[in-house]
Batch of 4 targets.
Target 1
Amino acid sequence: MPTLSKDRLHGTLDALVLKTLSWGPRHGYAIARWLEEKTGDAIQVEEGSLYPALYRMEKRGWIEAAWGMSEIGRKAKIYRLTGAGRKQLRLETAEWTHFASAVSRVLKPDASP
Amino acid sequence: MPTLSKDRLHGTLDALVLKTLSWGPRHGYAIARWLEEKTGDAIQVEEGSLYPALYRMEKRGWIEAAWGMSEIGRKAKIYRLTGAGRKQLRLETAEWTHFASAVSRVLKPDASP
DNA sequence: GGTAATACTTAGAGAGTCAATGTATCGCTG
DNA sequence: CAGCGATACATTGACTCTCTAAGTATTACC
C-alpha cells in the first residue's frame, strides 16, 4: 500500500497541534482524530508521537492541561493554548511557509537549474 | 526572516538531493552549495547530513558515485541519478506535495475548524 | 603558508514509530 | 443480567533514524 506521511511529521507536528488548539481546547485523542479527518488521512498522528509532543509543549509553556470531560462524558486531559503557544504558532507557521515554499520551488517539475 | 530550520529537512533531504541530481551529475559539495544558493539559504544542508544521505541513497541504488574532477580541477566524487533514483524522486515528490498541501491547509491563517 | 574547495567522521540528541498496557465505559449477545 | 468485545483515552518503553555540531584530512591555488 502507498506509504503515507512516513517521517515527514518531523518538525511539523508541533505547529499542527498548536494550530488545532488555536480553535479551542481539546483533548489529545480529539486532536489526533481531528487532524486526520481534516486532512483526509494525509496526516496521521500516532499516539506515541502525539502524547510526548503534548508533554514537551506543556513543559515549554505553549499549552496547558487540565483534567476534564470529553464530549461524550469520559475522563480526558484537556489542552489549551497559552499566550506563548500562540506566539510559537506564529513563528512556526512562518518558518514552515518559508521552508515549504523553498522545497516546492526546488521540486517543481519543470524547474531548471 | 525566519531563522535556522531546525529539523525540517527530515524526510525531505533525499528528495531535494535527487532533484538536484536530476539536472545532471554533481559532487556532494556542489549539491549543498547549489541548494543553498537556489533557495536563498532557506534550505541549509550540513555536510554531516549530506554525506550520510548520499551513502544511504547509493546503497539503495538511487544514485551512483564515481571519482572525477570538479569544475575547477579538484578531485571530487561525482554522483549521478540512476533509473531507480528517478523513480524514487517521482514518488517522493508526489508524497511531499500531498503532505505539504495538507499541512498548508491546516496552517492556513483563516482556516476554520 | 594560509585559505578555499572537497570529503569524511564521530558524538550526540531529538523526535517519531511501534507496540504493549491500563482503565473505563458502552453496547451487544446469549 | 452477566459476560465480553469494542471503543475512547492515556501512558510508556524500546528502538530507529536522521539531523546537528564540530571536528579532521587532503589538495590546489594565491
Target 2
Amino acid sequence: MIQVDTFDLKMLAALQDDGRLTNQQLADLVGLSASQCSRRRMRLEEEKVIAGYHADLAGEALGFELIAFIHITLATHSPDNAKKFRELVNRVDDIQEAYSLTGDADYLLKVMLRDLKSLSAIVNDVLMPHQSVAHVRSSIVLDRLKESMKLPLRALER
Amino acid sequence: MIQVDTFDLKMLAALQDDGRLTNQQLADLVGLSASQCSRRRMRLEEEKVIAGYHADLAGEALGFELIAFIHITLATHSPDNAKKFRELVNRVDDIQEAYSLTGDADYLLKVMLRDLKSLSAIVNDVLMPHQSVAHVRSSIVLDRLKESMKLPLRALER
DNA sequence: GCGTATTTGCATGCACTTTGCACACCATCT
DNA sequence: AGATGGTGTGCAAAGTGCATGCAAATACGC
C-alpha cells in the first residue's frame, strides 16, 4: 500500500469531484503551489493511485434510460463454463459491469440500455440461450438513490 | 434528447476513455481543429451531456479491498420508511451506490470497504438495526470481470 | 439561386504546466 | 555540535494549451 499524505488525500478527493481541475486550482484547494501539485499528481498517476480520468456522460441525455441488474447462475461450476461466460461478458458491450459473487447467485451484471426491448434481447437472446448459463433473474432500476463513484477517502484521514 | 453528431460521439467516446485529453489531442482523434473541439466540448458540458469529469482512483491501492452488494427489503412500503431509508443511505458514505429495484429485493447497495469487519459493522450495526429495514442479504465480490464505466456509444452511431 | 444561419480553421493574447534551481527541513552518523 | 544526504517546497521562466474574434466555407430555407 502506497504512501499517501494529507495533501495527496485532499488532491485525490478534489480530483474525484472534478477530474479536470488545473494544478493551480488544485493548489488553491489544498494549499500548495501549482508546481508541487503538478509533481504530486504525476506521482499519483505513475503509482497508479489515480487509475485514470473519465468523462461522466449523462446516460439519459443520450437515450440510455434503462439500467438493470441481472443475477446469473451458471449451469455447472466447471472452469470451462466460467471461461465461456467471461468471454460472453466481455463480448457484449451493453454489459457495463460484471462481478462474481458469494451467495446464491454466481454473477451480477449491470447493463445500461435504451429500452425494454433491448433488455429482453439481452436476457432472452444472449444470456438465457448461452450454454454456460443455468438461471437468469433480472431487476430493473426504478430509482437511483446514490451513485457517487467516489471512494470515501475520509476513512483514510487520521 | 439532445442533438449529437458523429464528431460529438467521437469526442464523447474519447473523453470517456481519457477525461483529460487536450483539445488538440481531441482534434487529432476526431478530425477537427482544436478550437472547434473546445467549442463543442463546452457545448456538451453546458447541455449536460457530459455530466462531469472524475479521477478514477485505484481502490486497492488505497486499501479499499472489499466490494460487496447488499440487498435490502424494507419493513413496510410506507413513504415514511422509504424516506428514512434514503436518509440513511445518504448519510453513510461507505455506500457508494444505491438503487431501488423491481423484483424480490427493494434496494441494492454497493459498498466499498477496507475489510470484513467494516462490512460486518455496516450490515449488523447500521442496516439491520434501522427501523425501516426488514431484511438484509449481502454478497461479497469475488472477482471483477468487467467495470467499464463507459456507455456503449457505438449503439448510437449512424 | 440568393440570403441567412451555422460551422469551420486560423491567429492571438492569456492562462496553465512543467522544469531547473535554490532553499528549508529533518534524520542520521561521526 | 556539525556535517551530510534525502525529501519537499516555492519561484521564475520557457513551453504548451485554451478561448475568443474574425473571415471564409458550408448548409439550409424560401
Target 3
Amino acid sequence: MDRPVVQVSKAGGERADAARNRAHLLDTARALMAEHGATKVTMDGLAASSGLGKGTVFRRFGSRAGIFRALLEDEETKLQQAVLSGPPPLGPGAAPLERLIAYGAARVDFLFDNYEIARAALDGGQSAPMGAQTPLSRIHIRMLLDLIKPPVSDRGVLATQLTAALDGPALLLLHVDDFADAKNDQVRAKFVQGWSDLVGLVCRHTSTGHG
Amino acid sequence: MDRPVVQVSKAGGERADAARNRAHLLDTARALMAEHGATKVTMDGLAASSGLGKGTVFRRFGSRAGIFRALLEDEETKLQQAVLSGPPPLGPGAAPLERLIAYGAARVDFLFDNYEIARAALDGGQSAPMGAQTPLSRIHIRMLLDLIKPPVSDRGVLATQLTAALDGPALLLLHVDDFADAKNDQVRAKFVQGWSDLVGLVCRHTSTGHG
DNA sequence: ACCGTAAACGGACTTTACCCCGCTAATATT
DNA sequence: AATATTAGCGGGGTAAAGTCCGTTTACGGT
C-alpha cells in the first residue's frame, strides 16, 4: 500500500488498462524528455513512441501541459511522503518554523531538479496554471502558519504569498541560464538561505545569524 | 515627450513603417481582446483584422505570447510613470516602506485589471516567461529595499522573492473565478492588506538586528 | 532627385496541439 | 457464462502557431 495520502491524480476510478497506459505514457514522456528536452516532446511523437493512439494521450492528460503537470505531480509525491511521514525537520516532529524552513529548502531543490518540467507544466492553462488548485506547498505552509500564528490579518493570504515567494523565482523570474550546471548550486543556496531569512522575519525569529 | 524613462520595447531603431504597424497591431489586438477575449486572439485573425500579413505580426512580436507581453508593457508604462514621477506615496517623496506598501497596492490593482493579458503573456516562454528579464517590480522593490536595509543576507534574493509574492498569486495561484466581478474587490483588498502585513514584518527593524 | 542597400512585408508552407466519433474491450448484471 | 453497459481506444481532420523566401519599400549617401 503505497498510495499517496492526498489523491493527486484522478487515478481512483480509472480502469485497469487506462491506468496501465497512463503509467506507460509517463515513462515514455520521461524518456523522450531525457533524450531530446521538454520542447521536443510532441503529442504525436509521444503517441508513436509509446505505441498508443494520439486520442489516448489526449484523453489521459487533456493537453500537452497536462502531461507535464502529471509528471510533476508524480515527482512531487516523493516530497509529499517526506513531508507527511519522513524524519524531521522536514517531516513531523520538529518545531513549526524549523519545518517551514526545511520545507523551503526541499521545495527549492525540487523546483531546481525539475524546473524544465515545471515550466512546461504552466503552458496554456486557462484556469490556474499551477499543479492543483491548492498546491501541496500552499496547504503545508498554511498548516504550519496556523501553528506559528504570525501577526497578520489573513493567514491564508500569507500562505499564498509565501507559496509564490517560494515557487515564483524558479517558475517565472529566473533566467534559464540560472539553472545552468555551473551557477545552479550557488543560486539554489541563495534561495534556500533567502527563504530562511524571509520566514524568519515573518515569524519574528531573529536569533539566527547570517553572514 | 512621453517616452518612458526605461526603454521597454525595442522601439528605438525601428523603421517608421515598422513602428506604425506595431502600434496598429497592438490597437487591433486590444480591440479583438475586448470583443472576444484573449483566447480568441489568433495570429491569422490579428493579421487579417489589421490588414497586414502574418509574417509581419511574427516579425514584430516573435510569438503569440509576445503580443501579450507587448500589450502588458504598454499598460505598465502608466504605472511606471506614477512610480517614477507621480505624487507620493507611490512616487518619490514618501518614506521607503510607505512607497513599498503603496507599490504593492498599485501592482495588485494593475494585475487584477490586466490579469487576462498577464496570463496570456506567460505562455510558452522558453526563457523567462515574465515581461522583461528584470521586471519593473523587481527593480523598484530592490531599490526600496536598499534604502530600508532589512536584515537579510541577500537583498537581491529578497527582492526576487517579494516580487514573486506580489505577482505570483495573480499569475499562477488564483483561480479564474477569483477575478470574477463579484469576488474581485474583496480578493484585491485581501492581497493589498496582506502585502502591507508582509513587508511590514520583513522591514521591521529589531533591537538585535543590524542596521 | 537618384540609387543601393538593408530592413520590412506578405502569404504560402510546415508542424503541432487539440477535436471527433466509430470501434473495441473491460467491468457490471443476471 | 452471456449480455449489456460504459469507459477507453485510435487515427484521421481542423485550426492555429511558427518558418521561409521572394518581393517591396523606407532611408542614407551621392
Target 4
Amino acid sequence: MNARPTIYDVAQRAGVSKSLVSLVLRDAPHVAEAKREAVKKAIQELGYRPSRAASALASQSTRSVGLLIDDFRNPWFVELLAGVRSVLDPAGYTVTVADLRLEEASGRNPVDGFLAQHVDALVVAAEAPPEMVRDVRVPLVIAGTRSLTPLLGKSLDDGAADVVAGDDDAGGQLAARHLLALGHRRIAHLSGQGAPAEHRRRGYVRAMAEAGAEPLVYGVDGGTDEANGFRAMRQALDAGGRAAGGPPTAVFAANDVMALGAMAALRDAGLRVPEDVSVLGYDDSPLAAYGYIRLSTVDGHSRRLGAEAAQMALDRMAAPAAPPRRLLLEPAVVERSSVRETIA
Amino acid sequence: MNARPTIYDVAQRAGVSKSLVSLVLRDAPHVAEAKREAVKKAIQELGYRPSRAASALASQSTRSVGLLIDDFRNPWFVELLAGVRSVLDPAGYTVTVADLRLEEASGRNPVDGFLAQHVDALVVAAEAPPEMVRDVRVPLVIAGTRSLTPLLGKSLDDGAADVVAGDDDAGGQLAARHLLALGHRRIAHLSGQGAPAEHRRRGYVRAMAEAGAEPLVYGVDGGTDEANGFRAMRQALDAGGRAAGGPPTAVFAANDVMALGAMAALRDAGLRVPEDVSVLGYDDSPLAAYGYIRLSTVDGHSRRLGAEAAQMALDRMAAPAAPPRRLLLEPAVVERSSVRETIA
DNA sequence: GGTAACATTTGGAGCGCTCCAAACGAGAGT
DNA sequence: ACTCTCGTTTGGAGCGCTCCAAATGTTACC
C-alpha cells in the first residue's frame, strides 16, 4: 500500500525481472534499450528510490568515504571538503563528514561511527588520537595542514596509511623569512598547542636563528584560538615594552584565527596594522579574505590537499597492496594588506 | 579469516545464539547479567562492530535524521547543528548533514540522498526549492532564521511539516527600532535576495514608517554576501552625499557577513564604526563575536532553533498523525561595540 | 510432586538488494 | 535443419541483522 516501492514493484510494473532492474540501476551494459527505458519509466512513475542499506548489505560496499575534520567552526575544512568531493563525486562516491570536536563532546568515537557505516575508506583531516585510528581495516588517508608526526607513527606501524599534508615546518620558515626579507627583526610568533602549531613554530625558530634574529615565542601553552592569540599578543607587547628593542614590528600567528585575536589586541593597544606592526596569519581561511580583515597569510592549499587525499583513497581502494604514499604540499604566502616593510 | 566479524562470530565465541547477541546490542531487558557480560567480552575481543546497513535493512529504521543546511561556509549552521544534536544524541539518533549549495554544485539532490539513506526524519534549514521537499514521506521539519513563506506553502499543502523559525519580520522591526531609539533617523538597510532578507527588510520598512523616518534600502538585487554588503554600503554613502541629510548615521545589514562588508566600505571611506556610523548585523554568527569585529547584531537563537526542530522531529516520529506545529522564536539584539547613540 | 507463570533464550523468516550460474533467443555458420 | 555463439534475461542464494513465535529453564505455589 503506502510502503516504499522496492525493486520488485518496479520489476513487476516494467514487466521484467528484479535482476534486470538491478542491472539498469547500476547501468550495466548488455541491456536492451527498450527494457532499459521501460524500467526507467517504472522507476519514475513509482517514485522508486533504491535502498542504500540493502545495496550496501548485498554488495558489501557502500561506495562512501568518511571525512573526519576537527571543528566545523574553523572554515578551513570547507575548501578541503570541496577538494575531496571534486574527485569523489565523479567516481560515484558519497562523502560523509564528521566533526571530531563535536563527536567527542557527545562522547562518541567518530571513527566507530564511520566503520559502523561501512565506509569504503577514511580520510582523516584532524588530529585524532592514534588509538582512534589504530586498527581501522579500511583504506586510510591522513590529510592535514597538519603536521605528520602523530600520523607517521601510525603509518609506520602498519604501513597502511597514505598521507598528504601541508609542510608546516616549511611554512613556519617561509613566514619568518618573508617577514625578515621585508626588513623586520623583532618578529613575534604567537603559537599554541598541537602538532601543526608546533611544526610551524619549529620552522619559525629555525629561520630566525639562521638570520641571527632572536625568536620571540608566546602563547605556547594555550589553544590555537582567538582568545589565545589575543593573550599572546598582549604578552608580546608587554615584554617588548620592558625589554630591549621595544615592541615587535611584525607578528606571525600560528593560524588566521589567532592572527585575528592579535589584531584585536593591537588595536586595543592603539597600534595600527600594518603601519605600526605587520601581522601574518596561516591557513588562508575564508576569514583572511574578508575586506574588513585583509589578512596576509600562509596558504596551505587546502582544496588541493582534499583532492589529493581523495585520489589517494581511490587509488588505495583499487590497489590495497600498493606501497603507501606520502605527499607534502609546499605552502605559499598570500599577500593581502596586513604586512608591509619596516619603516626603520 | 580477515573478514569483519558478524553477530554469529560473537555468538559462537560467547556461547550463545545470535539472537541473544542482538538483544545485548540493543540492550534489551530480560537478559541475564552473566550472558550479557560474556557477549560484551566477545564483542570486545573480536573488535566486532554491528553493521548499520544490515540493521537498517532488518529493522526498517536507520535511527538517523538528515539535516540540510544551505552553506558550510556560513558558520550560522554550527550552533544550529549543536542544538539539533543536543536532543538527538541522547535519543540515540545519528545526524547527517548536507550542504545544499555544495550538493547542487555537483548536480545532486541532497534530499534524494537522504531518502536513499533512509533517514527517519528530515530537518531542512535551508531555502530548498519546494519541489525538492514535495513528497518526502518521512517526518519533515523546517527550521530557519529563515522566514516561513516558501515553507508555509508546503506545509499547508499536505499538513505534514512542522516548522520552527526565527521571526524575521519581528527581527527587522526590532533592529530598526533599536537604532531609532538611540536617536538615529538616517538608517540605511543593506538587503539582498531571498526570503529571510525580504522579511527582515519588510520589518525594517514598517518600523521606519511607523517612526516617520524614510526607509533607505540598498542592495536588494544582490546576494546576501560580503561583496554585496560592501557594494550596498558604497551606494548608501554616495546617495547620502548627493541627497538631503548627508550619509546615514546607522546601518542595519541583513546579516553579519553583509555587515562586515559594510564595515570594510566604511573604513575605506574614512568613516569610523561606531563613532561616525553605527552598524547592526543579523544572525549573531561566530563572526560577530570576534574581538576584532565586535559586531552588534540580532540574535536568531540558532542553537535553540536546532533543539526545537530536533524535538519536533522526535515528536512527529512518535506521533505521525499529530497536528503540525509552528513555533516562532523572538529575536533579540546583542549589544557589542558597533552601535551607539547619535551625536546629533 | 506437579504445574502454572514467568523470565530467558533460541531458530527461522524475512528486510531489499547484488551477484552468479544457468536459461533463453536469435542470428551465423556449416 | 542443426549446432554454436553471443548477447540478454532470469531465479536463487545469500549479505548481517531484527523480530516473532516457540522452546527452554526456573521459581513459586497448590
